[in-house]
Specification:
With 409 residues, the chain is α/β, with parallel strands linked by helices. It contains 14 helices and seven strands. The protein has a seven-stranded mixed beta sheet with strand order 3-2-1-4-6-5-7, with helices on both faces. α1 crosses α9, α1 runs parallel beside α10 and α8 crosses α12. It is globular.
């Protein structure tokens, strides 16, 4: 017969351990967002557009890439499309990666490694964009080794995927504190610029499915990395379906788990708790319920209930910051806050999938054409994407204006 007191202790240890793992991740996020980010500021941009070469990565999505090329400001030094197959795109030089090219890098990493070796560049910086990245407010670059642009996924038809992107965008407010870290905890490959000479020294020739984060970690290991974040909110596409989003999240977490050996020992426990917290965040409400339904189980029940409830509230803070980043009208905030539990669960499903069954092959997230984006977003008129020149905002003329639409721009 199981001793009741021993069972009680075991349950208490389990509850506190689960709370501790999630608590470390949540507390670190608060430190980054509330404290480390206080040193962030919008910096001057001494490097003009003529010192930027743009490289856009794709398999063969010509129609999607065309809208991305259309949005690149005219003043950039040159625009290159790096594709897996021959495609026709106006306004850019298209390169098809030869089938004979066989480096250690695979998938998207193989393409960027070929480009770094084969595409001539006289500019100071190379700006990498995904096939669906619409640049906004791009007028130059601050003086740094690695410049990360913030993102703001645009609605493509799936309300559930868009909801999760708003939630994720709120979580990414921690990026404003990355400039204080030797190793920024991740990079968004859909919009970042790197000094050309640094890229040449570090290279892309490693097997990985999250080549952007892998690159920044290796660069930080090789030398003291000067990192800057530009809050321009480049418009990339939210996944057009829930299935596409789950596969995307699975790839992200699989890649970061596979590359975490690049981090120094001091960073690894922190990163492990973040992975666990992302994948298992839907269980936080269960910790709160367990604290109140199992009286006497956890030592210091009152403290446990208070801490678990506070950590549950952090999930709503993520969503609140997301709607702030999207400039949703304050009258719409309650709608998103009520839907936070749904966003938490859906956002975590792909991560759980990646933890339980990691993927090793790169899978491109499904994209839609510009015509589809314009048709589903009330704030966009027909042809507006093609006319966007990349130096201003896409939907609203002012960053102070509110968006009055729930599931579109």
């Amino acid at each position: 017969m199981v001793d009741a007191s021993a069972l009680q202790v075991a349950v208490a240890v389990l509850l506190w351990a689960a709370l501790g793992v999630y608590g470390v991740s949540a507390l670190w996020w608060v430190v980054e967002t509330a404290l480390l980010s206080r040193g962030w500021r919008a910096e001057k941009q001494p490097w003009d557009l003529e010192e930027i070469q743009v490289r856009i990565l794709t398999v063969d999505a010509a129609a999607v890439v065309q809208r991305t090329v259309d949005a690149v400001p005219e003043g950039v030094a040159s625009v290159h499309v790096i594709a897996e197959r021959e495609i026709d795109v106006d306004g850019a030089t298209v390169h098809a990666v030869p089938e004979s090219f066989d480096p250690r890098a695979t998938n998207k990493g193989r393409a960027v490694e070929w480009a770094s070796r084969s595409v001539a560049c006289d500019a100071e910086y190379v700006l990498y964009l995904d096939e669906d990245t619409i640049v906004t407010e791009l007028t130059g670059l601050p003086d740094a080794d690695f410049v990360q642009f913030t993102e703001k996924p645009i609605y493509t038809g799936s309300r559930l995927a868009y909801l999760c992107e708003v939630f994720r965008t709120g979580y990414q407010f921690e990026q404003f504190g990355f400039h204080r870290l030797r190793y920024p905890l991740y990079a968004w490959g859909g919009g970042f610029a790197i000094r050309h000479e640094l890229e040449r020294r570090v290279g892309w020739d490693v097997p990985t499915i999250t080549e952007d984060t892998n690159l920044i970690w290796r660069a930080a290991t090789a030398e003291r990395l000067d990192y800057r974040l530009v809050d321009a909110r480049f418009r990339n596409q939210a996944p057009p379906s829930l299935g596409a989003m789950l596969r995307q999240r699975r790839r992200w977490i699989s890649g970061t788990i596979g590359d975490d050996h690049l981090l120094p020992p001091a960073y690894r426990p922190l990163y492990l708790t973040r992975v666990v917290a992302w994948a298992f965040s839907p269980f936080v409400p269960l910790l709160v319920v367990g604290a109140y339904l199992l009286p006497g189980t956890a030592p210091g029940l009152e403290l446990y209930g208070l801490v678990s409830t506070a950590l549950l509230a952090v999930l709503f803070v993520y969503m609140l910051l997301g709607v702030v980043a999207y400039r949703k009208h304050p009258l719409l905030w309650p709608v998103f806050l009520v839907l936070t539990p749904l966003a938490v669960v859906l956002h975590a499903l792909g991560a759980v999938w990646g933890v339980v069954s990691p993927v090793e092959e790169f899978e491109v997230t499904e994209k839609v054409t510009g015509e589809v984006i314009e048709s589903v977003n009330a704030g966009l008129e027909e042809g507006e994407l093609a006319e966007h020149d990349g130096t201003g905002r896409l939907v609203r003329d002012s960053s102070d204006a509110f968006d009055t639409h729930v599931f579109d721009d």
